[in-house]
Amino acid sequence: MKIAFLYTLDANKVLFCPYIEQYLSDDNVMIAHHVNEQLLKQAMADGLTEAVVSLIQQEVQDIAATGADIIICTCSTIGNAAEQTDNIDSKVIRVDRPMAEKAITQTRVHVLAALDSTIDPTLSLLAQCAQQHGTSPDISYAVIPNAWPYYANGDTESYAKVIAEYVEQEVYGYDNIVLAQASMAPALGYINQPPAPVLSSPELCCKAIADYLPKD
Predict the structure, then answer these.
(1) How far apart are the first and last CA of the chain?
(2) CATH number for the domain whose boundaries are 2-95+204-212
(3) Which residues, including other chains, have CB under 8 Å from residue 70's CB and lie 6 or more apart?
(4) Domain at 98-201: CATH code
(5) What percent of the chain clears pLDDT 90, i.e. is strictly above it?
(6) How far is CA 15 from CA 7, 71, 98, 161, in A?
(7) pLDDT band per the 50, 70, 90 thresholds, residue 11
(8) Is 73 helix (H, G, I), strand (E, B) or coil?
(9) 8-state DSSP, 85
(10) Distance CA 42, CA 182 (A)
(11) What's the rounded Cα separation, in Å, for the pair 90 and 68?
């Protein structure tokens, strides 16, 4: 089996490695990494226009042509467009889908993002999952101010700490907290007193993908 990861941020390759090693390390599995940072840049600049969606889906088609059985789109902003790619044999899974399916089992869900562009795709996914599973959670959201510039400048530690501080000081009254972007996952290591269970996508996705691995 060949599993391909599509990243729109090169730094996220390192972020996923521990989870890939933990859940997807198997002699029968080949892991491939593909980076296209332009996809997120275009989505942030122009929105998910027809032209941007076409670029995203062309990238997915190119990865599928390499023989990937499963393609994991690690970017929440472009995840839906990636999943909707036609005329490929690969199974495409957006990284935040397993997290969303877990989140909507609770009543009060709070979504946090560092980028505005991630909010609408995440809310749409949560609504879709809730409808599929017959739940009706109360979903709210916030964009954490001043976090993303740290990441954009390569200061991932400060980025994670700003997110963690926001979670501990500004969030309360929810059953779970969704970190909408995969890049936010390291913040878990800095949250000492979480006000509710905090969900992040990289580990939950890799854990879910493990169910697709060939069984002995």
Answers:
(1) 13
(2) 3.40.50.1860
(3) 1, 2, 3, 4, 90, 91, 92, 93, 209, 212
(4) 3.40.50.1860
(5) 89
(6) 11, 17, 17, 16
(7) confident
(8) strand
(9) -
(10) 18
(11) 6
Is there a contact between 135 and 101 (Cβ–Cβ < 8 Å)? no
Query: What letter does residue 144 receive in the DSSP assignment?
Result: P
Find, among 9, 74, 84, the residue nearest to 52 by Cα.
Answer: 84
pLDDT tens digits, residue range 70-84?
Answer: 999 999 899 999 999
* Pair of tokens at residue 37: 């940072």
Q: What is the mean pLDDT of residues 205-214?
A: 88
pTM of the model: 0.90
pLDDT band at 211 (very low <50, low <70, confident <90, very high): confident
Domains of the chain by residue range:
2-95+204-212, 98-201
Q: Reply yes or no on whether the pLDDT at 133 is more than 90.
A: yes
